What we know:
Elements: E1 3-5, E2 11-13, H1 21-32, H2 39-52, H3 56-69, E3 71-73, H4 80-90, H5 98-112, H6 116-122, E4 132-135, H7 141-157, E5 160-167, H8 171-181, E6 185-190, E7 193-199, H9 208-222, E8 228-238, E9 241-250, E10 276-278, E11 281-283, E12 287-291, E13 294-301, H10 306-318, E14 322-329, E15 341-343, H11 348-359, H12 374-377, H13 394-403, H14 407-416, H15 421-427, E16 430-435, E17 438-443
Helix pairs in contact: 1-2, 1-3, 1-7, 2-3, 3-7, 4-5, 5-6, 7-9, 8-9, 14-15
Amino acid sequence: MTVRRGKNGTVRSVFLTADGSDYCSSVINLFASSLGQNREQIEEKVKELELKSQNPRIVRGLSLIMFRISSMEPPSYLVPSKVRSMIFRSARFPAVSPEERDSILQKVAESLGTTQDDVKNAMYADKESEQVLTSLPSITAEELAARFNIEQVETVMLKSTSITITTEKNLPIILRKVRSLGLLHETRTVGSANSITVSGPLAVVEHTERYGSRFASLIRFLFGLNGWEADAKVSLGQKGDRSDYSYHIDDASLEYFRHRNTEESYPAGFGPPFPINCFGNTVYPDYSARILDTDVAVFITRPLFYEDDRQIVKMARESGFSAELFCVVDKGSRCPAGARCFKDSPDFSSILEYLKHVYGQPRFKGSGAGKVSDEKRTPIASAAEGTRPSTLPDSIKIHLDELYPDSQAMVDYLDFMGFEPATALELAGYSVRWKGLRIEVEKAGKGS
């Protein structure tokens, strides 16, 4: 990270411009001439270039990027841990002469059916310093400079406690990205400008590495938009000697990133969200969907925010809007009770199918604009009250047939669609039996 500190408590990044393209060309040429060499050898050449440069930090940063985007491979096809184990088993006592050492290595080589040089190369082939440069990406000096500048901003932002993004037109887009990444945030509106304040990695106590990775994705996402500015509170320095600074950046910096503007796109069947006024507060869903004559607001949340977003959806419905909430859980996380969950990412085709099932029929009279009755929202929920339905939609039956014989997938699908699984499976022509707390599904008529 290369930054300049101001006397007024501000800090700004040092970007590479066209005048600094020589740095990029020198580093690219250094790597191009180092094909076949290991990382330790290349690092020595980088140090020599640093000594000749006016700003060695820039050389170091560009080299780290080149190492990251280049192909580095072990110098041997043998498994290093296996080779070392065989060497130590063959050497009952430490070798005290080159002849003894060669004798042990030759014995191991014969056991592996290879040469002594291969054994030597494999001994520490899993060390980073031994990795060999095998190929380079096709990258120009301008492209490398853009990567350097982007990572300058990301590095500073990863040391932030908060970032406030202000925009006049892109709040729904940014908010949806923030929500999809599961970042802590709050929004506010002042005049015609909207802002969202996102907690930075330094403000998070648990899962900081995962949070930091998602936070970096948000910063990279901003580089594809116009019409925004961001103010961050950052903490720089070593542990025990940190200082707080203000850091400002806006879309005028995009010229340093050579980043294409992001074209807004939506999954099939979904469109841009519309603002919802809930008792004086404006909230933005993530998507909207038009089902017959009903505009449905679709919220995508994470387990951490599920209860808060559930209350927002409840208020939206009470305000006369049709709204639905879905949750995305990561590996190791649990689906909140009562939530309709997806693993890792939302399945928009399933969401659309659910919306069509709930809103795809004319609304009940007197249910209010944009609303559906509770009976329609949970079609088989009333089965226990003696109103067991006699049929199941064909689309549900077809999908169940596609999922069979995966009993758990069939149960999860019916749960998601709002059906009581055992009842719906019987209506679809399946026989159901319980094995402990697990449902086992078979085609009706087959023996158990």
